[in-house]
Amino acid sequence: MTDLPAAELVLVPGGTLLTATPEEGRALAMTLARHTIHNIQPDLDKLMEGRPVYSSDPDSLIAASHVVAVEFQTIAAANDYWRG
Amino acid sequence: MTDLPAAELVLVPGGTLLTATPEEGRALAMTLARHTIHNIQPDLDKLMEGRPVYSSDPDSLIAASHVVAVEFQTIAAANDYWRG
Amino acid sequence: MTDLPAAELVLVPGGTLLTATPEEGRALAMTLARHTIHNIQPDLDKLMEGRPVYSSDPDSLIAASHVVAVEFQTIAAANDYWRG
Amino acid sequence: MTDLPAAELVLVPGGTLLTATPEEGRALAMTLARHTIHNIQPDLDKLMEGRPVYSSDPDSLIAASHVVAVEFQTIAAANDYWRG
Amino acid sequence: MTDLPAAELVLVPGGTLLTATPEEGRALAMTLARHTIHNIQPDLDKLMEGRPVYSSDPDSLIAASHVVAVEFQTIAAANDYWRG
Amino acid sequence: MTDLPAAELVLVPGGTLLTATPEEGRALAMTLARHTIHNIQPDLDKLMEGRPVYSSDPDSLIAASHVVAVEFQTIAAANDYWRG
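Output (structure tokens, whole complex):
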């Protein structure tokens, strides 16, 4: 077992949902989703084993993009959709 | 059958959706999701049996992270996205 | 076929989404989800047959917890997140 | 092929999302979900063939209850959660 | 390969989310979902091949009705739930 | 391995969720979903390998359309449903 670095386990890196741009909000959505998984499975070896599996399976990629879409709903609402 | 400790069956530990920070809100989202499962399956042995299965299956990890994302939507809205 | 008791078929037991606490709101979310299933499959024997299957399958438990998370979003919004 | 009766194909029976009670709102959520399926598959024979399959499969029941939960979110919001 | 007619590729037929009635809103939700799929797979032959598969599989029908439920949430909110 | 062009990795092309029309909003929803996947799997060869698989599988098409529906909820809210 190889432990993930501690930074990879922070649930909300930066400590805020507010971002300057939609691009950064989207990147945060991806990070939130990934760090949830790190907290459920903190063994880097297991994660590395799984990566080739899901990253070449279209259904897994669709499922992963679904999670990012849900996280982004929250972040976009937090930022009032960067309308201002 | 090994019963989970009673604290693991409380549906909303702390009794509130309000948290001081996004990080704590995110941790609460994970707890809510986990405690739902504890209430459906309160036998610790069964849960321990399942853990190596889902925690090394990328699709299960993605599905679990999806649930956390949905719980977090609720908690983030409750906290007005920690904007203040 | 064994019919479920009529109380198990009420879709919204108590007739309201308003609860005193998040804990009760969360319990209501679990009840709503379960009673939907009772209405689709009101045969207790079939339900009892399925229980050992889904309650020891991590993916089923994750899927069930997802439904509870969605129901809870509605109940939490109804209660203005118990902010008051 | 046996055609479903026309009433089973109406997408929003009653023509409104407003209901007097949460119980009726919940029943409408189940109806909306079912009538979507009727519109995709209007052959009663096919539907009857599928019923024993999904109604005794816990994962199908969980998936069906998920759809009802999503429909109910919309109906509950439409009715301002029957708060008044 | 048989190309779908161009009208089947318009993402929002009518160019608006506003409809006169919930019934029309619901029909639009079904259209939006279908036209997304047309844009991912614009070959009518492939679509026709898939239709008997998903339309007689209860789990596919449930999954399709889930998408319609999500599209309808957006349309219903856009129309302020046809409350007026 | 063939790298995707850099433009395909931008998470929010155009840098805004605001669009002139629902049609453009819908196209953006499809783009957001696709670019998430590009960021998880940036190898064009892998993506091309997966395309015939998911694009001829009705369940994959339904799952993909689900993600677009969720992205569109965010974009439609950002644009106040193009009501104005």
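The helical segments of chain A are 22-40, 44-55, 58-78.
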